[in-house]
Structures are given as C-alpha cells and as structure tokens.
Amino acid sequence: MLMKCNSVPLDVSSHDIFPRLQPHFHSWIKLYGSTFLYWMSTKPQLVVADVELIKEIFTNKQGTFGKAKFEGILKKFVGDGSVFQQGHKWLKLRKVADHVFHAQSLKEMFPAMVEKVEAMLKTWKSYEGKEIEVYEEFKHLSLEIISNSVFGSDHTTGKHIFDMLDKIAYISFLSYGKIRNPIIDKIFRSSEEIEADKILDELFESFIRIIKQREEKVKTGQSDNYGADFLGSLLEGHLNADENARISIHEIIEECKTFYFAGHKTVTSLLSWSLYLLAIHTDWQEKARNEVAEFLGQENPTTENISKLKAVGMIINETLRLYPPFPVLQREVTRKTRLGKLNIPAGTEVIIATLAVHHNSEVWGEDAHLFKPERFAEGVSKATRDSMMSFLSFGYGLRKCVGFNFAYMEVKIALAMILQRYRLTVSPNYTHSPVAIFVLRPGNGVQIMLHPL
Ligand code: HEM
Questions:
Q1: CB of 114 shorter than 6 A to ligand 1
Q2: CB-ligand 1 contact for 259 (6 Å cutoff)
Q3: Were both Cys, which of 85, 156, 356, 439 would link to 49 (CB 3.0–4.6 Å)?
C-alpha cells in the first residue's frame, strides 16, 4: 500500500496527506474504527486515534504507558537519552534540559539565532530571482542553531560531532525497515553496524576531548564554570557530589545525541513545510508580511517584537497540525492494564496516531485537510473541542517536548526575517511528495522562487 501511494506525487496544493503517508491506518480506521490492533512481525501494535483514549494514555500517572524502546542501529542513532528513559534516570536528565531551555535561557540564545539566520540570508542573495531548495538550507541552519546551544563555545567541534551523527542517521536510514533475525544479528554484525560502531567510537573520543578541555579550564582557573550551554550543565551534573543525581559520561553523550535528533530534524521539517505553505497560500503570506512590517519594520527581531507576531504563530500551528514532524508517538504497556473498554497485556506497543487525529474531520471539521490558520486565532486551547489532546505535535503532559518554545522561537525568527526580504512562490520544479522516515519531511526537497522585495 505504501509503495503504491508513494509512487505518485500529490497535487501540489493538496494537504490531504494521511491516506498517502499511512494508507494502512487510513483504510483500517475506516474498516475497524479509531482503535485497532495489528502485528508488526512478532509484536502486537495497538493503534489509537481516539482522542478520549489518547487522553487516558497521556494522563496515566502510574507509568503504565512507558516509552517504547528502539533496537539495533536505530537505538545507536537516536540514542539512549532522556526521550527513552523512565523514572529516576529520566527525571535527573529532564531537570537539566528544563533548566537550559527555560524562558530566561532562551532569551540569551535569541541573538545567536538571529545571527545564524542573518548569515543564511546573506548566502540567499545569489539566489534572488531564482529557485532555491530550502530543505537543505534549513537543515544547515537548524544544525548550526542546535549545535550552538548544546556546545556553545565548542561550536566547531560540536558541528563535527553533529556531522558524525548525521552519518549515523544516514546509516540507520539505510537499515530502516530491513527485517532482522535476532539470532543471526548476534553472531554476524552487518556492514552498517560495523560502520556505525566505528563512528560511535570516534564520537566518544571527541566528547571526552571537549569534556577534558573544559575540566582543565576550571582546574587552572581560566574559567569558573563548565559553560552556560547544555553540555556545560550536563557536566555540572557529572561532577555532582550526590551519586544519585550524578550524570555519567555515557548519559551525557546519549543526551547530546538525543538533542541532535530531537532539535534538528524536527525544526528543519517545520521550517520547510511552513515555507511551502506560505508559498502556496499567498494571502496568508501577505498577512504575515504585513504583520512583520507593522511590528518589526526592517529591524531584526527582538524577544519583545517577535512575541507580537500573532498571524505568524497561527501559521506555524496550522503547519504543525497538517504536517506534524512526528506522525505517530509510541508507547509500550509496562503492565497489564485497561484502556477504555480494552484489556491490554503487558508488552503491547501503543501507537498514538497523531497524523490521523490531526486530519480527522470529526475533530477539526469538514475542512480538516485545508490550510486555515484562522482556526488558531484564539490560541491552541480554543481551536477544537478538546484541542490539548487533538493537537499532538509536541506531545502532552510530563513528557511534552522540552524544546517546544525553542522551536517556536527559531521558526518565528527565520520566517519573519525571510518575509522582510522576499516574496515567495513555489517553483514549477517542486513535486509534492511528503515522506515519513523518522520525521515527516518533503521527499524531494522544497524548491521555492525567491522574489526580492
Ligand atoms: C518542531 C519542532 C519539534 C517537534 C515537533 C517536537 C516534537 C516532540 C514530541 C512530539 C515529543 C514527545 C515525544 C513523546 O511523547 O513520545 C518531544 C519530546 C522531546 N523533544 Fe521535541 N520537538 C521539536 C523540537 C525540539 C527541540 C528544538 C528540542 C531541543 C532543543 C527538543 C527536545 C525534545 C526532548 C529532549 C524530548 C523528550 C522529552 C521527555 O521525554 O521528557 N525537541 N518532542
């Protein structure tokens, strides 16, 4: 079903992507309703697209719906960081992340984000009046920005580390979907696995080098702390006298991998889809540009004026609804439980069907497949009857995305600065082929025509 759907591009202005990206879920929901079970090789997977049941899962406080674990190269790539942890280990890592990505720290990161967008836009001058492929542009931009906030002053080494992670991402992509035999896999390692392990050894060495350099600076009095960036805060945790709260080097490395994955591919996807949608829906492009002109003029964004961009915020929310970077969220049932009327055995994987909910006309209305940012005019909480559970782009509850304010800020800055300079239309070379490999992204990039204002 997937191969058939993916073989033809969609109409360039169609946002009806659910039947294309998840044709099996689309037809099974029609046949069996919004909750059904199927087998993924030897694993039972319960798909849940019912908002009431999703609420039960997210608000469960007993840890019954734990984080699903990845295996093989995928685990090596996405890491073993806080996203996949539970209990005490999760809490100590989450505390560090909450501290680094809270409102005050974000204000400090703001000028660096503006600077990186400005640098990108300088290179766009050579594309004026021509076509530019923005997915690759945004990949570099978001890598620069997340690398800067995680590694701060060690930004160049950080970038090298993220380049290595990019290689592992590619290797994981190559091995993704291959049927594995657990017995044979234990005896023979695949060439991808050998390559991934080589890169991981190199990564480990790079991290140890940075950590040693920072420790040395503190020891010799050149610095009185380990750095105000995310790595610095993790290092503080590594040297914590309380053994229970201490963060190991392995955990630091896994957490940096997590942030690379979580904070880079997601934002690239959101930025790319936002620009595509603005280029298609020129009425909203004009609205957003007028708003930017009113509050920013030709000035660079500041933390004060960016918060006034209401229409830009609505456009971002509508982009996240139609093209959520994570089309599903996964959980694993840790002990026998009840969900609605169902008895569920331990070990069942639960798939929260974000894309299905976001495109459900019973939840969002008959116009669910249309781009209508006005639905967010009163904010997310008033967009539908039960928006907090129907708008799942950043998850919900205790495990809600730690970087969601960071992501909004980065995307708002980039869109505002682009709108100040360019009118955008879609290039005739663009083919609308969304794909979901880890993250929902454009299959052949997003080709945009840049018209200087
Ligand atoms: C458009 C951008 C982003 C989207 C759509 C997104 C989406 C999500 C979602 C859906 C979750 C919850 C996963 C679950 O419940 O299983 C999550 C968790 C997480 N995100 Fe994001 N994210 C984005 C950007 C970021 C950024 C920029 C960072 C880092 C700066 C980040 C770091 C994290 C972390 C660490 C978690 C795990 C939280 C926990 O389990 O405690 N994300 N994200």
A1: no
A2: yes
A3: 356
CA distance 19 to 1: 10
Question: What is the CA(124)–ligand 1 centre distance, in A?
Answer: 29
Token pair 């380990």 is found at: 226
Which atom in ligand 1 lies closest to the alpha carbon of residue 324?
Answer: 5
CATH 3.40.50.2300 fits 1-63+327-392, yes or no: no
Largest separation between any pair of C-alpha atoms in the chain: 68
Give 112 Cα–ligand 1 centroid separation in angstroms: 21
Ligand 1 close to Cβ of residue 394 (< 6 A)? yes
H helix intervals, 64-190: 72-78, 87-100, 103-124, 134-151, 155-175, 182-187
Among 199, 195, 272, 207, residue whose Cα is nearest residue 238: 207
pLDDT at 58: 93
Over the stretch 91-139, which tens digit does the pLDDT of each residue have? Answer: 888 888 888 888 788 888 999 999 999 999 999 999 999 999 999 999 9
The tokens for 17 are 């992507």
What is the 262 CA–ligand 1 centroid distance (Å)? 6
What amino acid is encoded at 356 in this protein? A
Region for 73 from its dihedrals, namely left if φ exceeds 0, alpha if ψ lies in -120 to 50, beta otherwise: alpha
228 Cα–ligand 1 center, Å: 21
| pLDDT band at residue 187 using 50, 70 and 90 as cut-offs | low
Nearest alpha carbon, ligand 1 atom 27: 263
